[in-house]
User: Fold these one by one.
Assistant:
Number 1:
Amino acid sequence: MLTCRQMTELVTDYLEGRLSWKDRFRFQLHLGTCRHCREYVREMKVAVRALGRLPPVEIPPATMDALMERFRSW
């Protein structure tokens, strides 16, 4: 079974339907036994819906490059 830490790493892929059937099964199995992760997934769904309502923002290329560099070095 997945750990809570693994769940937080996989939640985006889960919500976007990008997990393999095996990982999705393991994810859902954990949700069935862990109320904290069920709450976390519920909160993530709320956040995704709220963020989806925001208008798109144009990010200047230099800013995007700086952000991507930060992510890559993380």
Number 2:
Amino acid sequence: SRRNAFSYWKDRHICGPKPIPIFGNLLSLSLYTRPLLELEWYKKYGKIYGLYSSAKPMLTVADPALIKQILVTDFNAFRNRPISPGLDGLILTRIRDNNWKRVRAIVSPTFTSGKMRKMYALISHCCEDFLNTLGNNVSNGMNEVELKRLMGAYTMDVIASCAFATKINSYADPNNPFTTNATNISNAPIWKRMLQMTLPTF
């Protein structure tokens, strides 16, 4: 039962934040800044603690040695990631089993050392735009900047330049269709994300 599901970590003597019915710990993860919330839980519960995605148990690991064992030594046992509807099924870090192997084989040649060296100049230009934007902000008397927006623009510029051979300059043109469409994909409303995580997939 769902009630028994919420005793999963307690039965295994693993601490963690208390879940709420139906949602587990999803509301907290959706409503608060996740890195800060996880840091708070880390300080309170230690390097290993249990959460619930709806009624599904999730284990959070913050021990470097154990993370290495999971991601390297025992990768065959932990190779899959949670299933989510939508574009997640097309993302390398989300797809599963043989499909992951197939897509990885396609993507890997893109990231050879030679290809990465060719990307360096493009990334360097994006970095110059980033630094110029920061410099302009300082020159205009700004004491604080919204770093999340700036880093998001930098990331978008790098992706557009390296993957699509497109110069967009997200700092000067935040309403560029490339930027706005990507933002719409990644910034789904909280209610939509909650439904995706709590409703079953058919």
Number 3:
Amino acid sequence: MIPCPQDRTVNITYLEAPLERVWWSVATASGSSSYLTYYARTTGAEDEPKIGDRYTLNYGDINNESVVIRCEPPHHIAFADTYDSMDPDGRTVRYRVSTAYTLEQQGPFVKLTLEVTGFEPTTHGQWFRECLEMGWRRSLMNLKSVLELGLDLRIEMFSYPRLGVANCTVNEEQSPVVCVPVREGNYLLQVFPNSPVDRAGMQAGDVIVEIGGMPTPDYPAFVRAISSFYGKTAEPVVAYVRDGVCCETTVRLSLDETFTGLIDIEETPLEEVRKKRELLARQRSGSGSLWKTDEAVRSESMPDSK
């Protein structure tokens, strides 16, 4: 990870591919579909972007309404992005950032610099920044695979098992409250209903410090730890801190699309996904700690016969 101010992220990769091909991949809607998005469309010419063009981009349970704000083919393009991210409980959260691509020919390689700016100086802004930085890191690796090897590995890149949480690196605001030093654990902002960690008894405010024996001092380390269980049926021991006390629990990781976000919106519309997630989130009893039976859930989802 390239050190940056807290309002931005920078990723750099070198691609052994023609400059024009790299430009098409990152600057056009059709190019985006070749390595990144599940669905993409533009209000402008398909392969000739210009300032003011609007893109609709989908990444499973995340939508991005994007506007071209700079376009200098084939070296610079920038977008004003509005991301709508659907949580596992059906709520939609909106984030706004700017994304800029710079392409430079360096011998047989194209140096691609991707800079995202405008993250809010809040804990949730930090969460979005850390998630997006790691997401772009995987996506640029897939772009390299597509351009150099002809292999589209986006599903494999993002099909690592999940815990069902929203988390960020422990920051200065959280540290004195949770009794964990800054950048020595992952603070759980949310634990989603019926998620692996929810079933294991963990809760928001806990700090994960180790997964399967692997330390998780920051968000990238957390993602690397759970990614190491790719393709495995895993129940790692998770070490965490609650109220200053070190605890351990065994967690069965999940590949459910509720937590991976890998949804084909052409098969399952997002509104249908949202309703399903909202229903699952309402399965808690009045105490908020128990779950209704399958029969109760089915009756709740049926129309009123009266």
Number 4:
Amino acid sequence: MDRLGEIAFRLPRTPAAQTFLDQLRTLLADVPYAEPLRPPGAAEGPVERLVLTPPRPDGARPLTVIGLADVPAPVVTFDPGPSLGVEGAGPLAGPAPTVDVAELARRLAGHVRRVDHTGVNLPVATTSSEAWRGLVRALAATSTMYRYPTGEEWPFVLPSTPAELRADIRSFVVGREPRFELVHDAWRDRTEWQFALWTDLTRAELAELFPEPEGLTFPGLDDIFRVVPVHHPWWPELGIRFDLCYRVVGGPSDWETGEWLVTAGGRIG
């Protein structure tokens, strides 16, 4: 059985992409499992990629990689599996974001603890139902992928061990991250990348740090995280946003451990 070993967010090898990656490295500096790597054989110089390895359970995969590559445009690749380029049916609506990743890192310095998940939103206008189902089938065949329990087309890949891939996840622990979310999005005209970060800040504190229009909330999810779209070198062809999760009080939730997705959503495939 093939196993999904890596999900890679690949950026063109340009000075602008290097700056973006360096800013992202600063943003994730306090995440213990985010490892910056230079090119093979290079003892110093710029970082080529960030590798996020699930801390629990031991040996869980896939890894999440964000890095430079010999590609003409941003792309997400699955090893093994398909790739997701940048697609769109028209220009992104609304004003361009004003906060870049450097400013995001400056305001959040010392407050980013973990990466809950990464994800790709695919617009319904350019991703047919048939193509969507084929993509979900392909990923579910090599990973532990679960339906979103409330019925939206938001399936999640949870990192897992080889034994869990064969039999299913039955151990619910904090650290089975980053997860990966795939969204069939009726509200987007172009591809969007998302990075959901656990912070130690409250809802009020994040609203003060990122007031509208820099920050916003989604209906029904406004008590979980605050959204900050960022300015970056590939705007407006690609949207990139950071979902900043509020501090959790009272111990880990069934979202943090993955139990809700596994037991209420159910595995795909």
